[in-house]
Model the fold of this input.
Amino acid sequence: SAPFGLDFGNDTSVFAVARNRNIDVIVNDVSNRSTPSVVGFGPRNRYIGETGKSKESSNIKNTVGNLKRIIGLNYDDVDFEIEKKFFNKVKFVKLEDGKIGIQCRFKNENVTFSAVQLAAMYFDHSKQIIEKETKLVIKDVTIAVPSWFTQEQRYAVEDAARIAGLNPVRIINEITAAGVSYGIFKQDLPANDKDTEARNVIFVDIGHSSYTASVAAFKTGEMKILGTGFEKHFGGRDFDMAITNHFIDEFNAKYKVDCRENPKAVYRLLTAAQKLKKVLSANQAAPFNVESVMDDIDFSSQLTREDLEKLVEPLLQRIRVPLENALTQANLTIDQIHSIELIGGASRVPCLKDFIAANYKETARTLNSDEAIAKGAAFICASASPMVRVRPFKYTDVLTGDVNVDFGDGEFNPVFTAGSPYPATKLITVNKNADFKITVQNSKNEVVSVFEVTGVPTEGVELKIKVRADPSGLISVPSVYFETVEEYEEEDVDEEGETVKTTKTKTHETQLKVSHSSPYALSAERLAELTALELELTAADNLVMQTEDAKNTLEEHIYYCKDKVSSEEWKPYASEAELAKIKELVEKAEEWLYSEDGEDAKKAKYVAKYEEITRYSNLVKGRKKQQEQEASLAKKEKEGK
Ligand code: ATP
Ligand code: MG
Done:
C-alpha cells in the first residue's frame, strides 16, 4: 500500500501520498487540495468533506465539524465546555464511557455516533478519495495531531483510523511533521557534525482552532525539537467569532431583534465573517453583505483592516506565552533563532505577523505552509514502511506532559517529564516476588494504561522494566525481564599440554509476559463491530450514489432519444415501427421517472429501464455510425484516386 500522510485539520484536512519517489498532495472529488473536515447526515446517506460543507447551511443540526476537538475528550472535560460554542446546533450526548457523542437525524431516525466514529467516517472518506484519485491501495497512515494531544486522544485517533480500515503506523505532532518537511526539502542546512552549530527555527502554527509554537534544531538529515508551547484555544475561529459578534451587535441594534437566537442567521453571518477576514488579509477594507440574514432582512456593512485589528487586539497578546514557553523549554533566547517559520492559515492575518515581528523576529513563510504537515507525515509514513525507500532523516520530539508510573507499589513517580525528548526508553529496576501491575498516569492523575506483568518467580527477583515513550507519544512497556547468571566450566589445553579448567559465566534474560490495556483504547470486539458498521455505511452511501448516477443516466438518455426522434435525425436509419417503439418506450419511461415510483426507485429499476430503451436506440445509433463510416471511407477512396 502507498504511505499516506494525513494533516487532520479542524477546518480542512490535507492528504499526501508517497509515490514514484515523490510526495504528492492528492486533490479531492472537486479537485481541491484541502478538504473540509466535516461529516453530515441526510435522509438517505452521509455527506462527508466537500458535500458536507456545501450542505451545511441547509443541514445545520446534522452537520458536525470541529471533529478533532471532540475526539478522545471526556464529556465532562473543561475543554469541551469551551468547544461547545463553536458547534452549530448539534445535539451532544454523554456516552456510557464518559466520552462525547452526537445525536442526529440519519435516514429519518435518531442515531447516536461517538466522536471516534465521526473521525473514522472522515478518515474513511479521505482514504476513498485517494484510492479513487490515485488507483493505489491505501492502508498505512501517519496522522498529524497537535503536540498537546494527550495519550487518550492519540489512542482515540488510532482507533478511528482502524475503524476506517487504515493502519495507523504513527501519530505525529503537526509541527514535527512540518519540521520534517523543512528538513528534507531545505538544501542549505548546516553540516551534520559535532562542531557545526545547528540552525534553530521556531515554527509557529496558528490554525483554525489552536496555536502551537516549537523550536527545532536542524542539521543536514536531522531535526531535534527542543521545546514546544501551545494555546489549545486560539486560532482563526476566534477571529471569526470576534468579527461575527461585532456584526451581530450591529445587526441587532439596527433592526431591533436578537439574531443570536437564530442558528441559521448566526451561521450566515459567521460564514461571511470568515470570508471577510481572508479578504482583509490582502485588502485594507472590504464590504460585508449577507442576504436574508433572518426575516428576509438583507444586511450590508463593511469593515476596514484597522477596525479588525481593534477587534482582535486582545487576541494578539495570546501569541506570547506559547512562543516564550517554547524558547524557555529549548533553553534558547530569540537571538539564537535563525528564523520564525509561519504555518497554518490564520498566521496569514497581517497583524499577527506584525505582532510577532515587532516583539520577536521577522517572520518567514518559506515552506508551502498549507501542505507541509501532510507531506511531512507522508514522508514519515514512508520511512516506517519496509516497502518504500526514502532518504534517511532522523528526528526527535519532546513530550508536552508528565508521565507518572506506578510499578505496583501504589506510588506514582515521574518516568518522563514534560519537555523530555522522545522516542526514548528508560530502564527501571524493581524487586518483585509476585505478579504485579504497572500503571501509567497522565499529568492530570488519570490512568491511561495498565500493563499486567505475569510469571514473576515467587522466590523474588530483580526485574528490569523498559518503559518507552514511543514515536507516537504513547507510553509502552516493551519488555520486563530478569537476568540469571549461569556458571560453566571451559576446558582448555595449555602450552605444556595440560588440561586447564576455567569457570565462566553466561547471563540469561528471561522475558515475562506483559499485557496492555487502556481505558481509552477500544476493545478488539468493539473495534471489529464498529469497523463492520463503517463498511456497511460506506457501502450504503455508495449504493445511493450509484443509484443517483443510474437515474441521471436514464434521464439523460430519455432526452437524447426524444431529441433524435423529434428532429428526425434518426429517420434514415430506422423503420417507422422502430421509431414508434422508441418513442413509446421513452414516453413511458419519462412518465414513470417523474411519478412517485420513479422518483425513489432501486438502482436496478433505473438500469432496467435504460437497457429497455437502449436495446432499440443502440441499434439505430449503430446503423448511423456504420453508414457514416462507410461514407467517409468512400470519400477518402475517391479523394485518393
Ligand atoms: P487546526 O490546525 O486548528 O486543526 P486547520 O489545520 O484546519 O486547523 P488551517 O487550515 O491551518 O487550520 O487554517 C485555517 C484557518 O485559517 C481558518 O480559520 C481560516 O479562516 C484561516 N485563514 C485561511 N486563509 C486565511 C487568510 N488569507 N487570512 C486570514 N485567515 C485565513
Ligand atoms: Mg492545522
Q: What stands out?
A: The chain has three domains: 4-234+318-384, 399-521, 526-640. The mean pLDDT is 95. The two ends are 58 Å apart (CA to CA).
